[in-house]
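Page 37, continued from 36.
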């Protein structure tokens, strides 16, 4: 995996970090290979490294090639960077990715900050998710039952900038 590879949080990955639910996500940014085969090869490599985890690898440079077919809505533009992709993830608390930099230090990509993640807030990211889709995600993921103490904010507001 290249230095452009990030481990990203999604609504299902949050539960995995608590040892309860979900998929471990691997987000890369490889504009040279937008194929689904690239994702499948990366998923297979990760599974070979840690077979007990339910891995999902997705090249964020390829999102524009499949997003409307999978989730509906209008076409999305091609992302130019991992930060641009992460900034559109469905909730502010999930719009976070980490990786080890070349010096083996943890690098954090959090375009909307870390406040919602660290404060246990579930709030939609309007960059990609409508209020209707957000309500559907709430009904599907049941965050209050999965993570007692989480605060769900459904009214429009600003992101958790600052941390």
């Amino acid at each position: 995996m290249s230095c452009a590879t990030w481990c990203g949080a999604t609504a299902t990955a949050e539960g995995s970090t608590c040892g309860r639910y979900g998929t471990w996500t691997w987000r890369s940014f490889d504009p040279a290979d937008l194929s689904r085969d690239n994702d499948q090869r990366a998923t297979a490599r990760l599974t070979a490294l840690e077979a007990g985890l339910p891995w999902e690898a997705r090249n964020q440079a390829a999102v524009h090639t499949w997003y409307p077919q999978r989730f509906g809505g209008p076409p999305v533009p091609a992302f130019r960077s991992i930060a641009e992709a992460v900034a559109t993830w469905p909730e502010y608390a999930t719009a976070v990715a980490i990786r080890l930099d070349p010096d083996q230090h943890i690098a954090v990509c959090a375009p909307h900050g870390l406040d919602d993640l660290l404060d246990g807030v579930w709030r939609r990211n309007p960059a990609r998710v409508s209020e209707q889709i957000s309500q559907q995600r709430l009904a599907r993921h049941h965050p209050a039952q999965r993570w007692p103490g989480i605060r769900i904010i459904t009214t429009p507001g600003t992101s958790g900038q600052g941390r």
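Strands lie at 7-8, 24-28, 55-59, 97-100, 106-109, 121-123, 151-153. Flag for discussion at group meeting. The first strand starts at residue 7 and ends at 8.
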